[in-house]
Design brief:
Structural class: mainly alpha
Largest sheet: none
Distance between the termini: 29 Å
Number of strands: 0
Order of helices and strands: HHHHHH
Helix content: over 70%
Number of helices: 6
């Protein structure tokens, strides 16, 4: 329980600072909701270095697959283009999970959804660079929060142990 509380505190501090820099100070021009998708993927993939690598690789693969859909739609004009393209892309998104580094399938769908979510009339292919930057920032936020929590927890436990020993000696 202590780990969750400390991780929640460190995550909250980092998320609060991040949103302040993005929305209040306006010095961090990033797609904030996509960054939080990256952070969510980091934790969902299990955190630590392994979750960072697998989660981010899967997110980036999802961005690639979504971008591929946009490219096909831009070059192949047919009423069935979207359906056929999505069918094959989803097939490959699932099949890629046989590759260990790309095996966190939810991360692939999250990465694709992030790019689809930035599509607009002005940006018919979404914002792939902005999405990639925001996803990476999200992973860094999750990783930093976890590292901070992992540093703080032993200090608290050491202090608790010292207090118990002191009380036993009284």
């Amino acid at each position: 329980m202590l780990h969750l509380i400390i991780l929640g505190i460190t995550s909250g501090i980092i998320a609060g600072l991040f949103t302040h820099l993005a929305f209040v100070a306006e010095v961090l021009p990033v797609i904030v909701w996509v960054a939080f998708l990256g952070e969510a993927t980091f934790f969902a993939a299990g955190g630590k270095n392994k979750g960072f690598v697998k989660g981010l690789a899967s997110n980036l693969a999802g961005v690639f697959w979504a971008y591929l859909i946009f490219m096909v739609l831009a070059t192949w004009e047919s009423q069935m283009t979207m359906s056929i393209t999505v069918f094959f892309v989803v097939l490959f998104m699932i099949a890629q999970s046989k590759i260990d580094i790309l095996s966190f399938t939810p991360g692939t769908f999250i990465g694709a959804a992030a790019l689809f979510g930035t599509k607009s009339a002005a940006l018919p292919d979404g914002e792939p660079i902005g999405v990639i930057i925001a996803l990476i920032l999200g992973f860094v936020m999750g990783w930093a929060a976890e590292k901070a929590a992992d540093t703080i927890i032993p200090l608290i436990e050491k202090k608790k142990t010292a207090k118990i020993i002191q009380e036993e000696n009284i």
